[in-house]
Design brief:
The structure holds two protein chains of two kinds. In chain A, 0% of the residues lie in helices and 54% in strands. Chain A is mainly beta. In chain A, strands 2, 4, 5, 9, 10 and 11 form a six-stranded mixed β-sheet that branches. In chain A, strands 1-3-8-7-6 form a five-stranded antiparallel β-sheet, with no helix packed on it. The radius of gyration of chain A is 13 Å and the shape is globular. Chain A starts with a strand and ends with a strand. The chains are: A mainly beta, B mainly beta.
């Protein structure tokens, strides 16, 4: 049973536009969420995180929104750049737990 | 400073052989994690170490998998009697502490079992 779901395997966006990547989770005990970016043949790179006490966290072009009632979070990238083309993973954890639970990823392609 | 490093970067082995994968975490990080990513899948948790506490082995898929962490630093993941389904990218991560801490990943070891 997948606790973290990324239902879109791929997303294509024009350079300069907004990219919106979505993630749903089923475990209401999760209280910390992260987004990672992964290029081929490299390990995942941390992008941005959010605690369940917040509903928004912003870092430059990246903003993560958390809707606890819907058990949904999203990552907004604006403006999108070709260098943002990668696979994006959503991950979640809960206070007493150390390991992260990952979604299957969404492959973002930003076209010039 | 140096990030998480892993070796080897690639490993090809024959079914039934044992393999050892190594991880050097970021200096000073007390928590170390192993994950694996099979083709088309997300990252699957295997095991994590936090300081001197007993490791959380709840993600290990079978008793052919084991890991140790010597001196609170370097970790080795051992897979005995490898099977073709063990083929995956094995990723190591470390964090300053555990629980709600950002985990920093190494480049991974690509294991292919023939």
């Amino acid at each position: 049973d997948q606790q973290v779901k990324q239902n879109s395997p791929s997303l294509s966006v024009q350079e300069g536009r907004i990219s919106i990547l979505n993630c749903d989770y089923t475990n209401s005990m999760f209280d910390y969420f992260l987004w990672y970016k992964k290029y081929p043949a490299e390990g995942p790179t941390f992008l941005i995180s959010i605690s369940s006490i917040k509903d928004k966290n912003e870092d430059g072009r990246f903003t993560v929104f958390l809707n606890k009632s819907a058990k949904h979070l999203s990552l907004h990238i604006v403006p999108s750049q070709p260098g943002d083309s990668a696979v994006y993973f959503c991950a979640a954890t809960k206070g007493s737990q150390g390991n992260l639970i990952f979604g299957k990823g969404t492959k973002l392609s930003v076209k010039p | 400073g140096a990030g998480v490093s892993q070796s080897p970067s690639n490993k090809v082995t024959e079914k039934g052989k044992d393999v050892e994968l190594r991880c050097d975490p970021i200096s000073g990080h007390t928590a170390l994690y192993w994950y694996r990513q099979s083709l088309g899948q997300g990252l699957e948790f295997l095991i994590y170490f936090q300081g001197n506490s007993a490791p959380d082995k709840s993600g290990l898929p079978s008793d052919r998998f084991s890991a140790e962490r010597t001196g609170g630093s370097v970790s080795t993941l051992t897979i005995q009697r490898t099977q073709q389904e063990d083929s995956a990218v094995y990723l190591c991560a470390s964090s300053l502490l555990a629980q709600q801490e950002t985990q920093y990943f190494g480049p991974g070891t690509r294991l292919l079992v023939l």
